[in-house]
Write a structure and sequence with these properties.
The protein has 440 residues and is an alpha/beta fold. Helices cover 52% and strands 8% of the residues. The termini are far apart.
């Protein structure tokens, strides 16, 4: 009787599970996307089909098939498959699984695959606990993570594992999965005829941002909340819009999305594309990035990428940073937008940036240059008796405020003004000074 109740409970849980779980792929051909790692002839596909899996890390954004791929491996392998979740499992559970795996290897000559979902949530000690048994082959590890494993997984585990990156699905691929779901026997709305408009499917795919799980859950909500008429459920774009109230932004303030968006923002300003700069800035702010972080990036770009081609850019950027400290969101976005577009539109020069790098390299790698006597300090007692600064030529006493003089490092050693913006004026002045130096 107990078995009967348990079977009924399991069947009910399966039917009541979220649509994304009920429609989980059962073989490699059911997976859409990721052809770069599981397409015909690819190494990982061959290893799965031959049941020759070695330790590996599956890395990618949410909802792209990491756990689904692990389940497919579980269904195909002759090995014992032990799933763990790093959020709910600790060293105790880990040791129990590894101990059982060792016994299984001795008594049954059967290997064990340990799947650790969200492995990045294991701390260093927990990850280190896996090392000896991965090393000696007591277990085969499959880890899944949404964070860059080179930051979140300890190096010894990485060196013993193959790393496969799963890519975010394109909208067309998500639409393909949604169409397939509408004819799936586990959909759960068999009593009705289903009609889902193309623009509704495209809307769900677009706003799910490549997350299959979210797109299927949105489809399920749309189907369950659209009233049937004459035995027919018709989902239009309006119903699809209701199923996803707000666009999902895959963004982690400390992970890849954080650094990638910041990088795209900086490179858009450097590349003189104010529209792209505004988009990446809006993306960061909408995802909760502090305005201070955005302002700092603008200030850095104003000096590193604009520099003396337009010195006012640094003034605008710094003023924006200070203003944001007083004002805050949502109004701070206006100030940041002004500064970001100013930096993006300004003429560009990294001459000062390259100059300080070259100067630092000389300081660190070459013999130190002595301060010329004329430039030495004369503001202490006895300086003149020691010959300090005796022949210094005061530049303001000469035409254009310039006089030929030894400053220790010849002009043009590090800083090379461009012919853009304000620096074009610098080049012209320096050309005149060079002529005067040559005459002197």
């Amino acid at each position: 009787m107990a078995d009967l109740f348990e079977h009924a409970a399991a069947d009910r849980m399966r039917r009541e599970a979220p649509l994304a779980r009920r429609l989980a792929p059962r073989n490699l051909d059911d997976l859409v996307g990721q052809e770069h790692i599981i397409g015909p002839g690819k190494m990982l596909r061959r290893a799965i089909e031959a049941d020759r899996i070695t330790s590996l890390i599956l890395y990618g954004p949410p909802g792209v098939g990491k756990t689904a791929l692990a389940r497919i491996i579980a269904m195909r392998t002759a090995a014992r498959f032990e799933p763990l979740n790093a959020v709910t499992s600790g060293v105790k559970e880990l040791r129990e699984v590894i101990s059982a795996a060792k016994q299984r290897q001795i008594h049954e000559q059967r290997k064990t695959i340990v799947f650790v979902d969200e492995i990045h949530r294991f701390n260093r000690a927990q990850q280190d606990a896996l090392l000896p048994d991965v090393e000696n082959g007591s277990i085969v590890l499959i880890g899944a993570t949404t964070e860059n494993p080179f930051f979140s997984v300890v190096a010894p585990l990485l060196s013993r594992s193959q790393i496969f990156e799963l890519k975010r699905l394109e909208n067309e691929q998500v639409v393909t999965l949604l169409r397939r779901a509408l004819t799936h026997p586990e959909l759960g709305v068999d009593a009705y005829e289903l009609v889902v408009d193309d623009d509704a499917l495209e809307h769900i795919a677009r706003y799910a941002e490549g997350d299959v799980r979210r797109s299927l859950n949105a489809l399920e909500i749309a189907l369950l909340t659209t009233p049937p008429v004459d035995g027919r459920i018709h989902v239009t774009q309006a119903e699809a819009t209701e199923s996803i109230q707000r666009k999902l932004l895959h963004y982690d303030g400390t992970g890849d999305e954080h650094y990638d968006a910041a990088s795209a923002f900086i490179k858009s300003m450097r590349g003189s594309n104010p529209d792209a700069a505004l988009y990446w800035m809006a993306r960061m702010l909408a995802s909760g990035e502090p305005p201070r972080f955005v302002a700092r990036r603008i200030v850095i770009a104003a000096s590193e990428d604009v520099g003396n081609a337009e010195p006012q850019a640094l003034v605008v950027a710094n003023a924006a940073w200070q203003a944001c400290e007083f004002i805050g969101l949502p109004e701070a976005r206006i100030i940041l937008a002004q500064a970001a577009t100013y930096v993006a539109c300004a003429p560009k020069s990294n001459a000062a940036y390259n100059g300080i790098n070259a100067a630092q390299a000389m300081v660190e790698e070459e013999k130190s240059i002595a301060v010329p006597p004329a430039l030495q300090d004369t503001h202490y007692k006895g300086a003149k008796r020691l010959g300090r600064g005796g022949n210094y030529l005061y530049a303001h006493d000469y035409e254009e405020g310039y006089v030929t003089q030894d400053y220790g490092v010849p002009r043009g050693t590090f800083y090379h003004p461009t012919d853009r913006g304000k620096e074009a004026e610098f080049r012209e002045r320096f050309a005149r000074f060079d002529e005067r130096d040559a005459e002197a």
